[in-house]
Design a protein that fits this description.
elongated, Immunoglobulin-like, 2 helices, five-stranded antiparallel beta sheet, mainly beta, about 40% strand
Amino acid sequence: MLPLLVLSSLLFASCDDDETYTTSPSALLTFSEDTIRFDTVFTTIGSSTQLFKVYNRGDESLMLPSVRLASGGRSGFRVNVDGMSGTEFADVEVRSGDSLYVFVEVTVDPRNEDNPFLLRDSLQFLLQSGFYQQVQLEAYGQDMVVLRGTIFSADTLLTGHRPYVVYDSLRVDSSATLRLSEGVRLHFHNGAFMRVYGTLKAEGTLDNPIVFRGDRLDRMFDYLPYDRLDNQWGGVILHASSFDNHLNHVDIHSGSWGIRCDSSASDRNKLTIENSVIHNVAGNALSVVNGRIWVGNSELTNAGSHCLKVRGGDVQVVCSTLANFYPWAYRGATISLSNEFCPLTRAEFRSSVITGYSSNELMLMRDKSDTLAFNYRFSHCLLNIPADSIGADTLPDGRYYHVRIDSLGHDVNRITNFPLIDTDIFYYDFSLDSLSQAVGAGSADDARLFYPLDRLGRNRLEDEASDAGAREFVKPQEQTR
């Protein structure tokens, strides 16, 4: 009796494996995506992997005689279909109610072109009915210049024709000046940074800024490019021997830090940064030890430590926005001022916004011996500090002059000063709200003397009073950018 039962079981199993496949023209596949698009991909550097799913939602199984790349693999796209890598696959089964995973990558061959170029291909699915379905594949390729462990030992000019991808960091020797012309894009690989022992001159424009950023051009999620994450590369170090650095219309973002100014001498200019942005870094956006620094018409925003950390020296900040709404972890105060190691001969903030999540965004650390200078002053600023701190530590000449407090219960304060910020997708636009206390808080004299145009090129002097910060409020119908 037992052998008969075994034989019967084998016969039934054989019948179950005898799958039939429909040839009906109405039996079609469905896809989770009809087009797979890649962000810009540097030539010779492989892309990240994207995936889509292929569904058979019908009541009968499908056999696909062929699944193939239309280009035969010549486009640079690569696929993996149901665990198999290649350019063409035969007899791919999709049972009723089942699905397949398809993974897609692309590597772009160089074309010796300055501008990005479009690559297209398609993955074609042939059904037994003779009907073809397909998913489009698209990517933009970009030729670039690789800088690997590069040392600039003589004066050098980098132009903005193609992006630069930096491996193993850059070094500017003490006898050299590195000049960056408008439109230069420096993409630093993870862990790479720039060491300046000589001089850095970066002269961008409003319409064609210079960009320092990471080299990942893809996305962590659909809504989150890696470029909005911090710690994607190192940062810029201006060493003790480095002086007379000038950055104009420069965008530095998503690093482990922004710019670190090592101890030098406060009687000689270390760094002038104007019309620029340092944003979303894990450490300090700008740190200074005993240096002479000018920050004008610029934004230092979202730092895991401080937007500005000063340990002695001579620092002036004019018509700028310093705002710390760093989203990734614990953060420090927006500004940290100290004379614990060197005299703070001057820390002057004029017509600027200093704000953040906390009710006190100013950290003061005084030398215990009280023998070193500790001079700071805020004028015509929107400043996020407790109201009762003004006057308790005020010199006769006044450390707080025409200052508005951003931690009070105004209708608009702290992050709501900036209505275009979207924390759900980590997008930060520091344009002012019409009800912000920064509107009208700036000094027209500061604007007239230093920056009659704001960071976006808008006139500060057209209305009754200049606004504090790097951006002048403009009514929506008046905005041109």
